[in-house]
Amino acid sequence: MEEEPCHKKPKFDDSLGDYKVIENYIEYIHTATNNVKAVVSDDLRDHVETITMYGGNIKQRKDISKTIKLLNEKLPLTSFQHLKRVRNETVLVCPTDSVKEKSIQEYVCKFVPELTDLFENFIEVAVPKHPVKLKKQHAVFNKIWSCNFHPDVYLEKLTSNNFFSEKELQTHKFYMTLNLEIALWYFKTSNLDVVTEDVFACLNVAIVVDPSIDSIVAVGIDNSSSHPIQHATMVSIDNVAKTQKGGAWIDRAKETDGSYIHNGVDKKLLNYLLKKFPVIKIGAKKYLSKTDLIDDEKTTSDGPYLCTNYYVYVLREPCIMCAMALVHSRAKRVFFCFERPETGALKSKLKLHTVSSLNHHYEVFTGFV
């Protein structure tokens, strides 16, 4: 059997220069066989976080049903519905930190006097603190304590190593390498030659794609050296707004005729991309305002709010500001290539997209290099 070629991540070399390093990254992403992976919340990790509870060993099995019924009425485990109350002859009574009396026996006598003589003894038992969400978690958790579990097919696939099909993966790789192509174009047209091991320390690029038509809606290139909040992601969102008769930072280009408009992409960059990649589509669906929707008797889904249902490909992991902007703009999925240990808000420093209190959540994927 012929061995697969060994793919190594590109490294900076003074003799190569920035341009060659970028070209090497493009080749690496295209040829690497690894699938990108979802960045998921911590409650989907393999590690079992436990909490200590008091368990009472029942003297006679015939009293288990009565015991569980009384405990559910008088000492309900409201925050632990994922746990089964009994395992063999041991019944969960309460978390150890909720007992303020001298002993668990005194606590039971005080709150459930009917059970005073039914327990043979009490023990402390470590049980899973959070609900089980994955099969692999259930296999581990269930060894500790019996848990209620309802498999989620989509979640199982999302956390696997092969969430995307080969065709989908190639599409995502293409758009990420297109970010690198745009970075390369920007370096060359701006006559920049930054000699640093972190080639992209002074540059970030973001591409917004409408997957329903496989078209680039907008591109954003970092301009934070001139404006403190014009990060690549922020610029790309503002450029999306331009395709929807909005935008704040640069005068909007006039809309072109037809079903596609190109004012989400700089004209010079647009010409470069169409010349080098003639098969790609660039432009958004024709925007329909609320008035247009009413007149045409269409639904609100026909007129997107900013990045609704769009995919955003970012070269470098977004910061907190940009990550929140993606929440507010209703992005569907976000892909990034390089982690930012000091400021990254989607994996490195925190996983903002997993905060349950947010009113919108998008999926995040990385692992291109």
UniProtKB/TrEMBL annotation:
This protein's UniProt keywords: tRNA processing
Database matches in InterPro entries: CMP_dCMP_dom (IPR002125), Cytidine_deaminase-like (IPR016193)
Pfam families with a match to the protein in the record: dCMP_cyt_deam_1
Annotated CMP/dCMP-type deaminase domain residues: 206-337
SUPFAM superfamilies: Cytidine deaminase-like
Family indicated by similarity: Belongs to the cytidine and deoxycytidylate deaminase family. ADAT3 subfamily.
Name of this chain's protein: CMP/dCMP-type deaminase domain-containing protein
